[in-house]
Amino acid sequence: MLARNLFIFLVVVGAALAIVSLSLQFFHLIPTTPMGEERPPQGQGQGQGKSRKRVIPVPNTEAPEPDPIAEAYGYCNTPNHSEQAWEGHSPVDYKLLSIQVMIRHGDRYPLYAIPKTKRPAIDCTLSPKRKPSHPQLNSFIGHMAQGGRGRWEGTLSSLPRLPNHSTCEMGELTQTGVVQHLRNGQLLRLAYKRHKLLPPNWSTKQVWVETTGRSRTLQSAMALLYGFLPDFDWSRLTVHHQWSTLFCGSACDCPARNRYLEEEQRRQYRLRAADTELERTYADMARTLGLPPRQLRAANPIDSLLCHLCHGLSFPCVAAGSALGSGGCLTLAQFAVIRRQQLEDEVDRRRVGLYRRYAVLATHPYLNRTANRMERFAKANAPGRKPRAGGEEAFTLSSAHDVTVAPLLSALGLEDALFPRFAARVVFELWRSPPATQGQHKGQGQGLVKAAWLKGERSKGGNWGNMFVRVLYNGEDVTFHTTFCRSHGRNAAQPLCPLGNFLSFVKKDMFNVLNATSYHNACYRRTG
User: Fold this and answer.
1) Phi, psi of 440 (to 5 degrees)
2) Which region ranges are annotated with the description Disordered (predicted)?
3) Is 165 annotated as catalytic?
């Protein structure tokens, strides 16, 4: 009898707990995703089965507040975690023709020093025995010693090919930065290996490398290139110099771009000045250091504090009674306030839209060269065309800065993309679809493809027959988030974005936001 009553009691308790558990899941008070399992990003992971643990999902209309500290660690991009790269993925039988890569340089020493504090103690020489390291680091160091055999445009030959100061100089690439790009190059090599993008005897024309005149961008380019093409032949390599951080070549003169930038900077200033918590934080930091708040702001302390955070160093301290300061250490809470304001600035920037207008004009010259390369490659690979002697530029690498990559993302319409972290990469891929659909006679299929290609080339905007593009940011496929391909159906007959969409965007459509029809028209048109 006692056993029977105990059994009934346990059944009742179990039922009650089940009801409570379901209620908690309904109101999202406990997670419905297993620990250690990540949900796929929105719009991805479809068709892989529904989660049985999901109970009546409630749409979340409010984006969660970003965590400034977690975001800062993501910006550091410390090379000690696995990363999945989606470069080189395509439907079956598609042929990869070319890739164009823009990178931000790797981790660097601060550009500014916080007055009255010690500079971060970081060694900028390279040593395979010091972390973070990379299996190719030692051979990379040896290969760079042979760099005199390469061709260096302009003043690039006078820059060091490796960081080489035991106490880092301002803005110098660190060992972390070198390892970040060795990893980038290795990821791309593994992603593209099966596509045989470059022949073993690749020519000077097929590999194009360009960099600004800073040692950190040149060294980052060399690290990625070495990871991608280990022990590359220096005699085949020319490194080109881009004098502008916008990579605008001969098309840098654009008065309207400068006006939009000035308006954007005024917006930033007004937003900062209205942030009372930020003002108090700067005043507290200045009091600790014994500085006027204005002088501290001018030193851009977030740059140095980020370096401390990324390298696991304690934040700067000053002794009590030092000059007029109260003494003490700068804190993580103060750092978080400055980063919080920067994240809010990015939201306001998207809302106002001035930066987008600036970005379109700032990046059009680079995007125009990118589009022209794709167009040449598409024509060279058209049915019946003979390959050009020496080949086309199958691999292009542009080594740049945050002020280059950030406007590029904005101009492409990737407004929700994270601010470019150290060693960020943007990749443009050009693909050709199979020459004939299954079941067609080979000759008939080739004839149909040639007719479709010619029709696409002549049509307005065109779809360039069987040519397609992909855009990736830090290994994630963002093609269908871009302005030029957002409306192209993922489930269309062709699952990639038509090249014609990209060409039409660069040549004309990207200027719609400026109510203009061309780059020249947008740059020089008088307003008001």
Assistant:
1) -85, 150
2) 34-63
3) no
